[in-house]
Amino acid sequence: MQVIHEGREPAGPDSSDRPDLGVPDPGPVFGQLFDAHARSMHRYLARRIGDESAHDLVGETFLVALRRRDSYRPELGTARSWLYGIATNLLRHHVRSETRALRATARLARVGDRTTAGHDGRVAEQVDAQTRAAQLAGALAKLSVADRDTLLLVAWAGLEPSEVAEALGVPPGTIRSQLHRLRRWLRANAAETTKNEEAIDL
User: Fold this and answer.
1) Model-level pTM?
2) Is residue 18 part of a domain?
């Protein structure tokens, strides 16, 4: 599982942020949305459920969005947050496999702790990085689905808290409180806390 945050894509407003999806031919608009968001969405989903499943889920997200385009309300949020909301709902079908993968990755921490001893240089650094990834996976596996979605939409998808609120259909204050609670939980419970927080860029 890849955990190092790669830097967030700019979320500033542009002409595609709140498009008119009620046009007679929505194909060109959805083509622009796909070009703007599919790649970053795939990276986010691949971190959570693997590359192959992520590829399928991106396609399903845009298909559902096309079918449900009448439900999009520009006054309530950007197209980006709307699309990630759809993807998050679809992701719920993969919760069990994601949790199993996180737990399997977390078990690597014990192997890494034993393997690091006696190694120097790059090998030890690689094992240490794998161990930190495993420790983070263990922490993520303990979270509820709702908490995991909120945390990773910010940390891995690069959404602002206000966009997460739009995506999940909850008040922004709820998301801010949730993130504050999650930060405290990570500090109190996650092994190698400082490294974990750096890895997910809180």
Assistant:
1) 0.73
2) no
Total of domains in the chain: 1
Name residue, tokens 């385009």. Answer: 69
Residue 56 lies in a domain: yes
Q: Which residues contact 77 (CB under 8 A, 6 or more apart)?
A: 163, 166, 167
Determine the structural domain holding residue 69 and report its residue range: 27-200
17 lies in a domain? no
Asked if residue 3 belongs to a domain, the reply is: no
Q: pLDDT truncated to tens, each residue of the chain (202 aa)?
A: 333 334 444 444 344 587 778 777 888 889 999 999 999 999 999 999 888 899 999 999 999 999 999 898 888 889 999 999 999 999 988 877 777 777 776 676 555 454 444 455 565 555 555 666 677 788 888 899 999 999 999 999 999 999 999 999 999 999 999 999 999 888 886 555 455 555 565 5
